[in-house]
Amino acid sequence: MKPPPVNHCARGWSAPPIDRRRLMMAGGSLAMGWLAGCATLPPADLVPPTLAFQQFELESLSLSQVVFSLTLAAGNPNDIDLPINDLDFELRLAGSTFGQGRARDRAIRLPARGQVPVQVRFEVPLARFIRLLRELPRLPLEQLGYELNGQARWGESGVVLPFSRRDSLESLRELSELLQAFGRPAPATRER
Questions:
Q1: Hey, what's the torsion of the CAs at 133, 139, 143, 145, to 10 degrees?
Q2: CA angle 165, 153, 145 (to 5 degrees)
Q3: Could you list the pLDDT tens digit for every one of the 192 residues in the chain?
Q4: What is the reported pTM?
Q5: Alpha-carbon span 104 to 6, nearest angstrom
């Protein structure tokens, strides 16, 4: 036989009285928080930023990896500032992954209708770099294209903004000259 359910109210326990004023303030706070969150979302008609390569240089070389420093000109065609956080990307050359990178600054603000330089550091495993150097002499420069894929977050909202750009390596002339210099055999010297 089951004992009867205990009625706590009968023992003198009761729910605290509802304070309507506090309830209204809590509801208002929740609504304001929701509206503030909506204000931090990117607009629906947002035009993606433009990217152009400005500078490319070898930063360091070790037994395990090659580190490059890249400067991108990031342009904002929109009428509002773009708060960009955690910009990271993958660079593909000749159809295969060359390296992964990340912007040096965690937070970047692209001014409305403006352009700012973005410093990017990316790392390439040494074995992958050597493999590309071996393949490079067999590929005509016109066929050596690049693809830059990545993502960033819209401010602190967590909304992910993906991006992608493809072009020929001609627009990365400094990179192509650097890769060709590594791929060429050393000139023969004559002894006298």
A1: -10
A2: 15
A3: 666 665 555 555 555 555 666 545 555 554 444 444 444 678 888 888 887 778 888 999 999 999 999 898 889 999 999 999 999 989 888 778 888 999 999 999 999 999 999 999 989 999 998 988 888 777 776 667 788 888 989 888 888 888 888 877 665 566 666 666 666 554 544 444
A4: 0.62
A5: 63
